[in-house]
Amino acid sequence: MTNPVSDRTAPSAEVKGGESKEPSTQRRSIGARRNPATEQAILDAAEALLVEKGVKGLTMEAVAKRARAGKATLYKWWPSRGALLVAVYERAKGTHLHEDKGTLIASITAFFRFVFAHWQTPKGQTFALIIAEAQGNADVAEALEHYRLERLEALSAVVDIAIARGEVKPGVTAEALAETIMATAWMRLLTGRLETDPERLAHEVLGGLLKDGDS
């Protein structure tokens, strides 16, 4: 799918007489490193635009204007509008590590409990909007896929631990099982079925794949 050029290329500022037309109040970058204040201002602006105007209203131009940052800075840190959308979601979600809880059932119960609780908050609902937007926007789809693969790798590592413990039936791969778990969570989000018992759901998803006594 061809994506609009405006979302892919960061145009340079217009110059007249050797002087940039960008506002003098524009926040400055600090070279290759991210300026924390500028990064926060950009993400704050993007989040505010999401609340006020929805996903369609979040454009790189609008975010740059509200954050008083150069578009070149936005594109340097987030190569597309989709990447910025995912970054807004990730900041709201906070640091969440997939952890081994001693058994795979316990680990996946904890995963379901966390994401379902977050997705029921106003900021967590952004993720459903991102998935919907990805259906018709190549940049958002690409950013979402990158995020999915990162999460899949982290979840697969937890499943690998359970496999090493001998909990999982022979022939089941960590990535395939992790993808099934993640797909279940995303489907619950998209169909509005987040108010469920995380432990019961973990048993339903994993029951037929665990060795007797572990389900």
Describe what this molecule looks like in 3D.
The chain is mainly alpha-helical and 215 residues long. It is built from 9 helices and 2 strands; from the N terminus they run E-E-H-H-H-H-H-H-H-H-H. It has helices spanning 36-53, 60-67, 71-77, 81-93, 104-119, 126-134, 138-165, 174-190, 198-206, and strands spanning 15-16, 19-20. Strands 1-2 form a two-stranded antiparallel ribbon. The longest helix has 28 residues, at 138-165. The relative contact order is 0.11.
Give the helix/strand class: mainly alpha
Which regions have little confidence, pLDDT < 50, spanning 5+ residues? 1-31
The assembly state of the depicted protein chains is single chain
- Cα-based radius of gyration, to the nearest Å: 21 Å
